[in-house]
Design goal:
5 helices, 12-stranded mixed beta sheet, Rv2993c-like_N, 2 domains
């Protein structure tokens, strides 16, 4: 099931995306419709039966998380390309809720950086409040999966050591286009293109720490709430983007998240 969050006529809601499963992005979705959900999708829900063409709505970030917990250096080749060792334990950091934008929203180049990079990632959307989750219960706390782009001010990351500004600035966490709930994330193709040129190509099977291990590790320390997001790391091939570039993250079984980089006016 694909679940999207949308806005129409000033109203924000969730809907189940119905139609051609081969359509991977809103731009390809002429025959897709949204069956509007009563309330929200966190827990048992029903749909209203009121259906709206996807082209008539604005797709929003699929969730507004209280926090985004991201994992660094979770692909060995990516760690190596930046001159880092593979960590024995997951390296976690936060991106604030204000960093989140949706499909088609602009990535505004931060004024304090001259080297901004794309990082294509599989994002896990949490479906229920959870803490100290044992491995066998991990599937129970996951609502589904979406595409993410961990936009990073690389020069700032290197200069400041702490990653709060480098990875937490406004617009640095594009998510979308929707949540896929019926998916095995163990071995999915993940790519990133810039202006149609392939930059990153990997598979989730290359992760050092599995999604299950990451959720167990994180919930040892903190409570995750419905709608919180886990970014699982990026494969090799990260690189710079500049104003005017179109960046597209595609993940097998989910779809494509596209955003354009713009300069700050």
């Amino acid at each position: 099931m694909r679940i999207a969050r949308f806005s129409i006529d000033g109203t924000v809601g969730f809907g189940v995306v119905e139609g051609d499963r081969s359509a991977t992005a809103p731009a390809d979705a002429d025959d897709l419709v949204l069956d509007i959900i009563k309330g929200h999708p966190f827990g048992d829900f029903t749909t209203t039966g009121r259906k709206v063409p996807l082209g008539k709505v604005r797709l929003l970030p699929p969730v507004l998380p209280s926090k985004v917990v991201a994992i660094g250096r979770n692909y060995a080749e990516h760690a190596a390309e930046l001159g880092n060792e593979v960590p024995e334990r997951p390296i976690a950091f936060f991106k604030p809720s204000t960093s989140v934008i949706g499909p088609g929203d602009p990535i505004t180049y931060p004024a304090f950086s001259t080297e901004v990079h794309h990082e294509a990632e599989l994002a896990v959307v949490i479906g229920r409040m959870c803490r100290e989750v044992p491995p066998e219960r991990v599937p129970d706390v996951i609502l589904g999966y979406t595409c993410a782009n961990d936009i990073t001010a690389r020069d700032v990351q290197k200069a400041e050591k702490q990653w709060a500004r480098a990875k937490g600035f406004d617009g640095s966490c594009p998510l979308g286009p929707w949540i896929e709930t019926a998916l095995d994330p163990a071995d999915l193709a993940i790519t990133c293109t810039v202006n149609g040129e392939l930059r990153q190509a990997g598979r989730t099977a290359e992760m050092i720490h599995s999604i299950s291990d990451l959720i167990v590790h994180i919930t040892e320390a903190m409570t995750l709430l419905p709608g919180d997001v886990l970014l699982t790391g990026t494969p090799a091939g990260v690189g710079p983007v500049t104003a005017g570039d179109e960046v597209a993250v595609s993940i097998e079984g989910i779809g494509t998240l596209t955003n354009q980089v713009v300069s700050r006016s």
